[in-house]
Fold this sequence. Notes:
The structure holds 2 protein chains of 2 kinds.
Chain A: H1 4-35, H2 40-50, H3 54-71, H4 73-82, H5 84-103, H6 110-140, H7 154-157, H8 160-184, H9 187-218, H10 221-224, H11 226-248, H12 252-274, E1 277-279, E2 289-290, H13 298-325
Antiparallel strand pairs in A: 1-2
Helix pairs in contact in A: 1-2, 1-3, 1-6, 1-8, 1-12, 1-13, 3-4, 5-6, 6-8, 6-12, 8-9, 8-12, 9-11, 11-12
Chain B: H1 3-42, H2 45-79, H3 81-115, H4 122-151, E1 156-159, E2 162-165, H5 168-172, H6 175-205, H7 210-245, H8 247-254, E3 266-273, E4 278-285, H9 288-294, H10 304-315, H11 324-353, H12 362-370, H13 374-388, E5 393-395, E6 399-400, H14 401-404, H15 411-442
Antiparallel strand pairs in B: 1-2, 3-4, 5-6
Amino acid sequence: MLSLNELWFLLIGVLFVGFFFLEGFDFGVGMETQILAKNDTERRVLINSIGPFWDANEVWLLTGAGAMFAAFPHWYATLFSGFYIPFVFALLALIARGVAFEFRGKRDSKAWVKTWDVCIFFGSFLPPFLLAVVFASFIKGLPIGSDMEMHAGFFDIVNGYTVVAGITVVLMCLVHGLMFTTLRTIGDLQERARKLARKLLIPLAVLLVAFVIMTYTMTDIFDKRGVLLWIVVVLGVAAYLLAGYFMSKKKDGYAFGMTGAVMALSVASIFIGLFPRVMISSLDQAFNLTITNAASGPYSLKVMTIVALTLLPFVLGYQIWSYFIFHKRVHEKEHLEY
Amino acid sequence: MDTVMLSRIQFASTTIFHYFFVPVSIGLALLIAIMETMYVRKGDEEYKRMAQFWGKLFLINFAVGVVTGILQEFQFGMNWSDYSRFVGDVFGAPLAIEALLAFFMESTFIGIWIFGWDKVSKKVHLASIWLVALGTMLSAFWILAANSFMQHPVGFAVNNGRAEMNDIFALITNGQLLVEFPHTVLAAYATGAFLVTGISAYKLLKKQEVSFFRKSFEIAAIVGIISSFGVAVAGHAQAQYLVETQPMKMAASEGLWGKSGDPAPWTVFATIDTVNKTNKNEIQVPYLLSFLSYSKFSGEVKGMNELQAQYEQEYGPGNYIPPVKTTFWSFRIMVAAGTLMIVLGVYAIYLMWRKKLDKPNTWFMRFMFWGLLLPPIANTSGWIMTEIGRQPWTVFGLMTTEDSVSPNITSGQVLFSVISFTAIYAILGAVLVGLFIKVIRKGPYAMDNEHGESHDPYNKEGSTHAFS
């Protein structure tokens, strides 16, 4: 049986996997507004295609952070204070992005629209990059002392390994977003999205391989969770190849599922490698934060478990339902809200 | 400045800025839900148009409220990590439940509401705005449960240097929460209502779309007067609870240094001298403080000097007196704004009843327009009193603000974040006001074809299945 500490570690992992799977594609679509769209109408079609979803997708991040706060307060405290500046930038980006969707269409001036478009682009690019940097440095280890405080310098956070992770995740979001676009648009835009996704598969493969090799040599997670992680890698390769196959057959729905699977497996591998640690100290193994020493009391975990297991089916139910309501394709002749 | 002071500035600016938008969202969601209900029941297109027009303002406001809320959640960990370590067990739970129960609901159903006008049935569409309204209220409940714990900690035991929860029901039946929740939520309804009456008054003065704005005014005025009265009643209950649980905050908000005397008078105005711990130029209303504190015209209230001595015995040496002038004046500003709201509300109802809204007294309608500023003033000063009045504590009697701050962040880092967040707030605030003015100027019947696009939901091309 799972202990409650293990269950909450698993739940937080699921929340972050869900966040990257879901918001991953709307980050990608946000980037596409500058990369794929040729004109303002196409930009609007793209933004409207994620219109009903992006806000709820972002709540997965808020819930993940909230669950961390409640179940593993020390994890939450060490993480957010330790990565102070990266989180400042991520928040500024998320703030600008969130209002930009609502604001951009509210005035006709070109400069106005352009300003918010820049916010949408950077707001869709920076958060996944920074979060990937943070997640990668989780498993690389950080200077955490016996007092559980992290005193990280610039190069503890920004280094070859974390930057490769950042770029990989950004590219993964873009490919995943492009596949989402093939599902929600028609005609030329859809065609171009499919083509670009296929083109990006090679650079993404190079990055993913580099990331796996670096992880193998620079972290201890393959020593700790070898078999399980190799299974994830094999599944990842399979999902990746299938994504390419489905793209070439224009089976967009399946291809979207596969790019999502690559994303989900990548994020899951971080959590698998961490377990049962939640933060790894590069100073001394004894200073690691674990699912035991970073956790809330058993009563709290029990209450939270009951609440979460009661609510989760409803939450998942109405979110899936909302995707069903908006399963039809967006095109320029339709009423575009944004 | 040190990290404590800078982090306090950041917390205060974020909270105050965030809280300009939260009550507007809560209030407008309810009003829009009422308007759409009228539309579904009566079939009158004007009510649909009302839901859409006020919905436009709601969405602009909601966007800013949501994005500033993300920072609100993260800064506990970023700036107050020792606080998070100490109370995460108790304080984190309501936050996580808020996200799971309320945020998901709001964000999903707002999506359905915005984009679903032609995609779901009228009833489902109506249900989604009611679920948004319910979501905002649930969100308020859980965040106030967390806040109430800071004002009056219950349902926990300190183990291994941490506050651990041992009774969730104590947490959600906290006496503080039972008075704070109705006070805050009713104030939020009043905020939305006065925004709608204010803008409608402006339009009625200009004689634009009179029928539309008269109906809007009437719905909002009714919600406004009920909630303004409710706020006062709940506020009275809250003051009494304050005397019991946080007497120092009460004494500071009264500028009361020594014992009050029995019966206790209420000080309307005073020049407070915090150095010599005395007041000059006091203007007092006899009996009123006794009534506010105990609902009867007798009874003594403890002063700050006595409480300071008592706290020193209980918690060790230190200064337990919060910033007195801030607490004193923010309380008075809140009460004054709330009283004016009731006065305006009553007269608005009188005009409605006499059917004089088409030919209103212009002076009154001007007041009513500026009246939209009263709730934000009351909300802000109310929170300033609540949070500043609790100092030096973050969790009353358990943990001080000084001990709550993250030990590993530098003042340079916090200064950087304070400046960048404040700058982005200033920009967002200005943009929001600008967009509000634009939407209001254009009016409810200029909303179609904003982008020169035709609205054709029955277009066949749009119906291609995604997973084909």
